């Protein structure tokens, strides 16, 4: 199905890894701690936006001043993720695609998560062996929907961006792929991946 591309790039959360419940739990815990309302459909629309960016958007949306820094709130959420990831994460149906092209085409992860967190989650899921590169939000100046994350993946894989296909579950991620000049596959439609994040 993807034989005519030279490289495959996957988003992680909600795409190659089923982590919706992990992040919903972590966000809910953090938002409750700092008194920020939980708007479920709005949270789902922000899938793929890095943590600090999401917090800034939420504070602006609800016109809130919180007695904590962005770093403190970010670190608290990351701590909850780290302490609970082993309970929630597992590979999605896209594991079959990764297995099919393992050793045939180079593959990478381009994620809004931080690199270290992504590498840990991929290891828990047994997915790290399929991937030649992992690019987290901490490796690029402009995260998704900017194209930087996926362009960095292509650079590390040594493949022309136009020869890459990106698997994504969010509109922002698909926008980033298009901006990078890459083909984008909506995994919710094409691969029936179910993302149970703030449904």
TrEMBL record:
Keyword Hydrolase: yes
Molecular function terms, GO-annotated: hydrolase activity
Domain of life, per lineage: Bacteria
Keywords: Hydrolase
Presence of keyword Calcium: no
Gene3D superfamilies, sorted: HAD superfamily/HAD-like, Putative phosphatase, domain 2
UniProt family annotation: Belongs to the HAD-like hydrolase superfamily. CbbY/CbbZ/Gph/YieH family.
NCBIfam families: HAD-SF-IA-v3 (TIGR01509), PGMB-YQAB-SF (TIGR02009)
Protein name as annotated: Beta-phosphoglucomutase family hydrolase
Source organism (scientific name): Cellvibrio fibrivorans
Organism ancestry: Bacteria, Pseudomonadati, Pseudomonadota, Gammaproteobacteria, Cellvibrionales
